[in-house]
Amino acid sequence: MIVEVEANSNCESGFFGRFKDLGPARPVAYIRLYDRQSAGEWCAVTGWSDDAAEPCCPAVARPVEDSGAGITYLVSGGIFGLRFRPLDLQEAWSAESPNQWGEPYLAVADARDLRFEEPSKSAV
Length: 124
Prior knowledge:
Blueprint: E1 2-5, E2 15-18, E3 20-21, E4 26-33, E5 41-48, E6 56-57, E7 60-66, E8 70-76, E9 82-86, E10 101-103, E11 106-108, E12 114-116
Antiparallel strand pairs: 1-2, 3-7, 4-5, 4-7, 4-12, 5-6, 5-9, 7-8, 8-11, 9-10
């Protein structure tokens, strides 16, 4: 599994990394982050692409092998990384919003800090 993110307006630094994946990717909708609040804060997440008209794309999490931590969950998005906003913030995704921020990718140690999207159910 290779993650490559170009430096861009969503996240200042680019990233290139190779990971040994241990399972399939699943779409992820929310992540509990500990950067701004030590008790954790649930945030919505989306992938961020280079398409100016529709920059949102799926964010996915998959279990990977991490040489320092054992098994972690790699969360990745589009060519411009991931974009986050606090769960209680009701605004559209925007690179200009001071309330939102970007990262090239995340490594999450505990699956309890992830909320996966429900698979869509089609009528049979």
